[in-house]
Amino acid sequence: MKSSVSTIQRPRGQGLVWFVPLAVALALVPIFFNNYYAQQATFVCMYAALALSWNVIGGFTGYPSFSTAAFVGLGAYAGAILQNAGMPMVLAWVAATAVTALFAAVLGYAILRMKGHYFAIGSIAIVESMRLLASSWSSLTGGGEGLNLPIYPGGPDHAGRVFFYAMFVVMIVAAVMSIWLDRSRLGFGLRCVQQNEDAADMVGVNVNASKISAFVLSALFCGTTGAISASWVSYISPPDAFSILMTLKVPVMALLGGAGTVLGPVLGALVFVLVEQTLMSRFLDYSQAMLGLIIVFLIFFLPGGLLGAGVFARISARIARLRGVQA
Amino acid sequence: MSALLRVDGVSRYFGGVAAVSKVSFELTPGEIVGLIGPNGAGKTTLVNLVTGVLRPSAGRVWFEGADVTAQRPWQASRRGLARTFQIVQPFPQMTVLENVAAGALFGGGAASRAEAEDIAMEFLEFVGLTPLAGRSAMSLTLPSRKRLELAKSLAMRPKVLLLDEVNAGLNSAEIGAAIELIRQIAARGVTIMLIEHLMKVVFSLCDRLLVLHHGELIAQGDPRSVAADPAVVKAYLGSKYAAQEQQASAAPAGTAQAPGEQHE
Amino acid sequence: MFLDPQILANGLMLGALYACIAVGFSLVWGVLNVINMMHGSLIILSGYLTFFAWLHLKVNPFLMLLVVSPVLFAFGYALQYGLINRVVSRPVLTTLTLTFGLDMILYNLMNVVFEATPRRIILDLGSLSVGDVVLPNDRLFAMFLALGLTLLLFWVMRSSRAGRAIVAVRMDRDAAALMGIPIRQVYAMTFAIGALMAGACGVLLAITFPVTTNISGLLLGKAFVVCVIGGLGSVPGALVGGLALGLIESYTGTWWGPQTAVLLGFVLMIVLLMTRPTGLLGKAGYE
Ligand SMILES: Nc1ncnc2c1ncn2[C@@H]1O[C@H](COP(=O)(O)OP(=O)(O)OP(=O)(O)O)[C@@H](O)[C@H]1O
Ligand SMILES: [Mg+2]
Q: Can you give the pLDDT at residue C48?
């Protein structure tokens, strides 16, 4: 009887079947390939971490957040300022993460009472406001000139590898967090909120605390990512740090993979970065239009994402059938 | 003596209009109390005030001796004060089992999701939804949704259960089954307040009735005497008919349906 | 300082343009529940059309109002009818992302075709001096046209059949459908009117400011802020919000610089979103 109960649940841990091999393959890239590929792999890890993070608020909780870039930018500036003040690099990353989390808690308390379009607009406005603030507060942020960071010693190849593994670790931690969340009490509560906020409240879910927790979880690794990429590029400026394009790209990746699925965003980030790289290098002048076309295609032809649309389920069913034939 | 729930002079205004006005009553453990009144009398609003969905404009709510006037709904349900919604509120894309497990996990304080699912199965069995456990809540028919709503609130292990028109929209066979179910819930020691338009249900279940009209509590007491109360008859039928009714001094409209009940 | 008439006049002229920018955006948001991320680019598109017609064909920019507006109307109608209608009832995330994707395409094409260098129409209409206050005539015309067009929309919404149908759909879509109002067409019409207003704004913008794709995001931001300040989906709301934002930017810009002015607009918007999501005018239907 018990076993029939657990089969009713959505299948769990299914994503690990492809996530583990993918992660291993990514980890090997800088060992076997040159710096260019290491760089692309770093982007994959970075966007995977960001998309996984976004998924916590946008997918699990169902709040259309566009504040990713606000967290990334804040993490970048916090990390840069601390590192320039003499803090060791890794410590500065950790501190930037903490600063971002704190900011997200306060911001979440303020803006999570909005819903739907209002929340979406509010969250975009936060990014714009932070960018303007960074450009005007010159004494702290260097204003429009931006900030330089110390260049990582040991040559570009070595540095490339160091930053790749840093991003890789962030992605793994974000994935572990997603898997934990999916099975946790908090994650269940967030799904309740996503389905029907009033009913969740009535059933005993502390809706506000859950939403704020989700917002903080969705911000944490954005902060880390921002700080790491600031150190990686050794320069930050307001429009790069608080990029509107990024704030919209990350949800698109999560949607591409399947919003609300546990590890789908990783797949979305991977596919997106690959497509972007191949298209961009070929149609340099039309790169943005290409992105736009991908978005339009995604919405009309893959509304549930790569995993959500049952594409993956169909493939695994086929594999299972093949196995059955062999046996 | 010791009241489980005490509502003390509670009022609520919506833009100057009193939807609930200076209402006081108590629920003692083990009772089934009916709350009746015409459409728009303020019954749902009163439930909202008791469960923290709305904050009273004046007055206090006490539960097990503690002042809970300022509580939020999730706190109410964790305390043991559960309710169903007049318009059912499932988690549409979750399974029936998950819906009920949510109640057990958050409101009922189950230790883990596995335990919550076990408790949920138990209550699905109780309301007769076991065969539908794996279906999505969205796919259920109205009577099943009402049962789901019941199972969900029962899984919260409430001490007091406020049922807001759980029978509206059901046919008479379904209503018979629902009455039986409510009786069984009460037999488990749950104190029940039942909002109901069908006098048949009220009379067969309730120990005591509260009558709300224009937000005011105009009568309370045992069902027979409340139904005979001229103020109640007047509230339901309007003063003109009330006068006729009194002249005819007919038997109280015990088995009839209250007017104005054709809705969900 | 509050009484400096030049700052006041600048604020009003800017505000009228903002109202005109926001009114179409607000209509689409209010009726369709779609945040049209293309709004800024649509304005720029018509700005470019006006500029090139003036440059190469010597067409008077004011005359272009009559050409560009119908073109954008048709474009908007086709876009909504053919594409956006298919996903209009999906969650915000989907519709917003879709219009953003479309915006990227349009933006990119404009960059390739028109190039991003700022282009400016020079009309030399002189200026009007009232005491110490200098009012450039082109801006003055633009202001009156912006106000006039906004009021015209108000009147159309009130008294035309299409306008009444749009209002009915906004108030209760299902009831409107039951009454036999063709929802898909009304949606397309609404989006088309939004695009038409963007088109008209683009013409006015081209007369008063340099046109460049770089400012399309900025214009979109203005539309957000004005909508939230004035309240969603109402012409008077857009008018009040636009004038308020114009005045705020004019004063704070003079005192603390333009960046602070823009920042203040956003902060005001966020505060209003949290405290008064229905805007300063409170709840209003599309009237
Ligand atoms: N959120 C609200 N805002 C404004 N008025 C409200 C609100 N909720 C209820 N009301 C008004 O309060 C009065 C009481 O409504 P309520 O829903 O409590 O009645 P009811 O007794 O439950 O009626 P019914 O039998 O139809 O369910 C009604 O006049 C209603 O219009
Ligand atoms: Mg009611």
A: 92
- ipTM field: 0.84
> Is any Cβ of chain A less than 8 angstroms from the Cβ of B83?
yes
Domains and CATH numbers, chain A: 4-326 (1.10.3470)
The angle, 0 to 180 degrees and rounded to 10, between the axes of the packed helices A35-54 and A155-183 is 20
C33 contacts on A by Cβ (under 8 Å): 117
Residues with C-beta less than 6 Å from any ligand 1 atom: B 14, 19, 37, 39-45, 86
Q: Tell me: the pLDDT tens digits for A140-160?
A: 888 878 888 888 888 888 888
List, for residues C10-51, the tens digit of each pLDDT value.
888 889 999 999 999 988 988 888 899 999 999 999 999 999
Of the listed ligands, the closest to the CA of B23 is: 1
| Contact: A204, B72; criterion CB under 8 Å | no
Smallest CA separation from ligand 1 atom 30, residue: B40
Residue B126 contacts residue B184 (beta carbons within 8 Å): yes
Segment A309-317 long-range contacts (CB within 8 Å, at least 24 positions apart): A309/A258, A316/A14, A316/A17
CA distance C53 to C47: 10
In a domain, residue B51? The reply is no
Which residues on chain C are in Cβ contact (under 8 Å) with A286? 108, 112
- Residue B214 CB contacts under 8 Å (≥ 6 apart), including other chains: B18, B21, B41, B42
How many whole angstroms separate alpha carbon A220 and alpha carbon B111? 28
> Domains of chain C by range and CATH?
5-114+132-275 (1.10.3470)
B99, C101, C248, C263, C265 from C252: Cα distances, Å: 53, 34, 6, 10, 10
How many independent structural domains does chain B possess?
A: 1
Query: Using N-to-C axis directions, what is the helix angle for C216-230 and C235-256, rounded to 10°?
Result: 120
Residue B71 lies in a domain: no
- Domain with B147, as residue range(s), is 88-157
**Is residue B37 situated within a structural domain?**
no
**Number of Cβ atoms within 10 Å of the Cβ of A7:** 8
Cα C18 to chain centroid distance, Å, stands at 7
Supply angle C-alpha C163, C168, C170, rounded to 5: 95
pLDDT tier for residue A1 given thresholds of 50, 70 and 90? very low
Write the pLDDT tens digit of every residue in A21-68.
888 888 888 888 888 888 899 999 999 999 999 999 999 999 999 999
Q: B234 lies in a domain? A: no
